[in-house]
Specification:
single chain
Length: about 475
Amino acid sequence: MAAFCVALPAVAASLLLLLLLLLVSWKRWRGARAKRHVLIVVLGDVGRSPRMQYHALSFVQSGFAVTLLGFCNSRPYEELLQNSRIQIVSLTELQKLPVGPYIFQYGLKVVFQSVHLLWKLICREPAAYIFLQNPPGLPAIAVCWFVGFLCGSKLIIDWHNYGYTIMGLVHGPSHCLVLLAKWYEKLCGRLSHLNLCVTNSMREDLAENWSIKAVTVYDKPASFFKETPLDLQHQLFMKLGCTYPAFKARLEPLDLATERSAFTERDAQSGVVTHLRGRPALLISSTSWTEDEDFSILLAALEKFEQLILDGESLPSLVCVITGKGPLKEYYCSLISQKRFQHIQVCTPWLEAEDYPLLLGSADLGVCLHKSSSGLDLPMKVVDMFGCCLPVCAVKFRSLQELVKHEENGLVFEDAEELAGQLQMLFSKFPDPAGKLNQFRKNLRESEQLRWDESWKQTVLPLVMDT
């Protein structure tokens, strides 16, 4: 009986291995169908992973079928959902357990994600490429490589940042889990057939410190990020005004048939939309509410800006819109609610996917507080703002000069004092056609930025066809 109990696990393991080998043989037999199929893996929210959504659409436009695996917490772009050649497969996200030490919970999460991702990948149609977003790469890199090894797929890693540096913001750089994650990324990152990255600084770092050769593929705005026509601005403001008071008109029009928002007015007779005289300036900041964005800088700058208005400076009132979801949102919303602004309104909406580019294209200034955990990535939110010809004030870090050109398409700051001074300068005598803000916008219009589709065809497609 004891011998039987000992042998039973071995028999079960052998049967499982045999089943896996049979499945792999079957998938290899069907391998001819894999040549124009790509598996894209995101161990994160697909709806909040725009670059991977862009990759999926670009692959489809180049004749591939795409299966996109990830968490489905937010709605992806409509173009993605409506495309018959893109299949979205939802991955199950293991919620935080209420018991046990953190290391135990994290270990259990890694084991669960490994088994779950392995099963989901094995059950898919065979693919020529497995295209993986990193971070998060633990455990996805090893799992994707293993499936690629079994099924003959080539692994492509798109390096957005380093996962271990993001973990280090929470746990500290010397924490055992952070060191383990660094070792894992460095080791498993070398298993890929092709590596892409988001900056030249990251490309150089991967080569020098990780012995990984990568190709820089800069984030570019999609075609729908553009300046919003005034009539569409008005429609958006009226829509948002139903939920957020900051967008509502301060005074009702004399003619009740006239539509008025905080910023615009549609004439009842002609239907023409115009900006309101004395309207507030619209400032927008997009965030994932994580440790690499310190919103206390913006709040302190807004307090200084408010004091300037109270002291008699010729400055407009502000509507500050902070969009996004994330773990620190509740904390910062609590800080915001404690402020007693008289000339500044702050709201924190979660926008529908189609409304976000419209709002960027309607704003007067963007503020970016992303301070890269590694110093090597770039904020995609700024890329989108530039696509809308929206000038930006961005907090300084190592790679930022690859995107934000100080005094050309925006300004770079280091602290709240400097940001407050920039807001004062940019909004002085607002809206001033001859002011610095409009000069930055003019420079962005004249730069004729390359869009994602064109950039992808020039950089990624030749690499994929040669791999």
